[in-house]
Amino acid sequence: MSEEIKKKFLYVNRKAPYGTIYALESLEVVLIGAAFDQDVSLAFVDDGVYQLKKDQDTSLSEMKNFSPTYRALGDYDVNKLFVEKESLEARGLTLDDLMNLTYEDEDDDWAEKSSIHVITRSELAKLMEEQDVILSF
Amino acid sequence: MKFSILVSEGPYQHQASDSAYLFTKAALEKGHEIFRVFFYHDGVNNASRLTVPPQDDRHIVNRWAELGKKYNLDLVVCIAAAQRRGMLDEKEAKRQGKNADNLNEGFRISGLGQLIEAGIQADRLVEFGD
C-alpha cells in the first residue's frame, strides 16, 4: 500500500556502538526499512563514526559484536553511508580505520564500489536539508 | 498536517515521552492528524500496564492510553525492542511460555515496518529522544 511513495530516508547515527543500544537498534531499523524500497542514506557523526571501525572485538565486554552486519547492507541496496570528516578527525581516525564496506553497482556491470563516503559537516547539513524523513539514533 | 511521532526514551527517566505526549495532544487539539505514535528503544516502557507512579505525579502510561482512546490513536510498540526489555502482550506471553503479560490497553505490539510506514505516510515524522 505504501510502495508507490518513495521518500528520502536518512538514518543519523550519533552514538558509539556498545555504550548504549542505540547503534544496534538503529541498524535493526535500517535492515527492516530496506524492504520498503525507499531512498536510504546513513550518516555517521560524533561517536557514531566508531560504529564503522574495523577489527571490533567485544569479547572482554561480553557485548554482541554486531559490526559484521554492516557488511550486509550493500546486499540490501543500502549503499550510501556518509561519514562526517570532522568527527573522524576529532577522534584521530581516517578512512583506513573503517571497515571496507562495498556494494555491487547493477548500473555499472556489477562493479564493486565503496559504500562509504567521507563528507564535511557543511555537506552533511546540505544532505539533511534534502531529506523527507530523518531518524536520529 | 499529518504527523507521525517516534518516542525513543522511557517514561520518568527522560522527558522525551512527556514532550511527545504534549506535542501530540497539542497537534490533535489544533485539528492535525496523528497517523501513528511509535515507541522504540526504552520508549516501549511507556506501554507497561504495571507502571505505578506516586499518586501526586502524572501517570504517563494512562495518559497516553486516555489520549489514544479519545482520538482513536494508533499507539504501536516495537516488538523487537519490547521483547528484549520484558514487554509482552497476552498472545506473545503465551507464545514465549511466560506466565504474565504487561502491555497496557490501548497499545498494540507490532514490527519495525510500522515505523517505516509511519515515515512514508505522514507529512512529518517527529522524533522525541535523547
3D architecture notes:
The complex is a heterodimer of chains A (137) and B (130). Chain A is built from three helices and seven strands, in the order E-H-E-E-H-E-E-E-H-E. Chain A is α/β, with parallel strands linked by helices and 137 residues long. Chain A is globular. A five-stranded parallel β-sheet of chain B has the order 4-3-2-1-5, sandwiched between helices. In chain B, strand 2, helix 2 and strand 3 form a beta-alpha-beta unit. In chain B, helix 1 runs parallel beside helix 2. Chains A and B meet through helix 1 and strand 7 of A and helix 5 of B.
What attributes does this structure have?
heterodimer, A: about 140 residues, alpha/beta, Hypothetical Protein Ychn, Chain: A, 5-stranded parallel beta sheet, two-stranded antiparallel sheet, 3 helices, 7 strands, about 20% helix, B: about 130 residues, about 20% strand
Task: Give the helices and strands, then pairings.
The complex is a heterodimer of chains A (137) and B (130).
Chain A: E1 8-13, H1 22-33, E2 39-44, E3 81-84, H2 85-90, E4 102-105, E5 111-114, E6 116-119, H3 121-129, E7 133-136
Parallel strand pairs in A: 1-2, 1-7, 2-3, 3-6
Antiparallel strand pairs in A: 4-5
Chain B: E1 2-7, H1 16-29, E2 33-39, H2 60-71, E3 75-78, H3 79-84, H4 90-95, E4 107-110, H5 113-121, E5 124-128
Parallel strand pairs in B: 1-2, 1-5, 2-3, 3-4
